[in-house]
Amino acid sequence: ESIIQPQATDAERAAESALRPKQLEEFVGQPKLRKQLQLVLEAAKLRGACADHILLSGPPGLGKTTLAMIVASEMGSALRLTSGPAIQHAGDLASILSSLQEGDVLFIDEIHRLARPAEEMLYLAMEDFRVDVVVGKGPGATSIPLTLPPFTVVGATTRSGLLPAPLRDRFGYTGHLEYYEHDELEKIVVRSARLLDADLEPAAALELARRSRGTPRIANRLLRRVSDYAQVHGNGVISLASAHAALELFEVDPYGLDRLDRMVLEGIIHRFNGGPVGLSTLAMSIGEEPETVETVSEPYLVREGFLSRTPRGRIATASAWKHLGLSMPADLLS
Ligand code: ADP
């Protein structure tokens, strides 16, 4: 497990839930999405109805689960949480759907990973508030149509393009989450430090923001490690110096690159003369899973201009050579 991975580890979920904003007001950043969502919720409240189904798309760690919880709390509704991979059979979904109460918010994380039969059941339920429950097994099984009370689905996906059109069309509102700016991440760590009762100096807050890859989950995780460090090696105050020392210990560099990112760049440069090299060859050469390289490391390296993806494979850019203190050979500069 890497300190810069955007997905949460199981162990970290409790720590995370303590830091979740509870109201839309408290949610930092994403100004456009926040305004749109506020309108959708206000309008539903005025009508005295459930909110439209809401789809949230964006990379992991940017606040989709948090927003689903906020939707439920703003609507004064109960929240049910599940995920695409957790629903193995359509029957699993049928039992969730048939237990919903009027006004409930059903959060489905990784909704693009629902199996086809569950997906079809879901869009019927979303559109007509109806589900067919199968009773019994084998030839004697019968299907009983059941009417559901009105409810709101909040779906989360890393890319809305991954959803089949019929499902995507059932959502009345789709919000896109963008990576956060440094000043927004700074506000997030300052708020988290306050909740954790940690003494965070402003310069250290900015430094954490810069190294968090635009991702609140990573910002909060770095804050926890830096706070540990300040407690063990000092008087608990997180100064710029203690933040630097802690980040060095965890091998997170000034650009937010960690060991894995540097291994990727060094691999391309030293073993494949800067590329192009295919993803699986590259991953194998550094002893990592292709999926880890592709989902944890690459998106940020591409976004920061250290790596480019071409049809022939991955290439380390001139900035990557420079970042590693190397100069790019003249014949590669073109
Ligand atoms: P996702 O579901 O997109 O993977 P989460 O909603 O689980 O992300 O957020 C990850 C962590 O980051 C949570 O601890 C949450 O409190 C924090 N977080 C995310 N977005 C914000 C935000 N806009 N303001 C404050 N904290 C945030």
Structural write-up:
Helix content is 46%, strand content 14%. It has 334 residues and is α/β, with parallel strands linked by helices. It has helices at residues 13-17, 31-47, 64-75, 90-98, 116-128, 165-168, 182-196, 202-210, 216-233, 240-249, 259-272, 279-285, 290-303, 318-323, and strands spanning 54-57, 79-83, 105-109, 130-135, 142-147, 152-157, 173-176, 199-200, 237-238, 307-310, 313-316. 38% of the residues are buried. Helix 9 (216-233) crosses helix 10. The two termini are 37 Å apart. Strands 2-3-6-1-7 form a 5-stranded parallel sheet, with helices on one face. A two-stranded antiparallel ribbon has the order 4-5. Adenosine-5'-diphosphate is lined by residues 16, 19-21, 27-29, 60-66, 156, 188, 216-217, 220. Adenosine-5'-diphosphate binds next to helix 3 and helix 9. Residues 254-334 are annotated as: Head domain (RuvB-H). Keywords: ATP-binding, Cytoplasm, DNA damage, DNA recombination, DNA repair, DNA-binding, Helicase, Hydrolase, Nucleotide-binding.
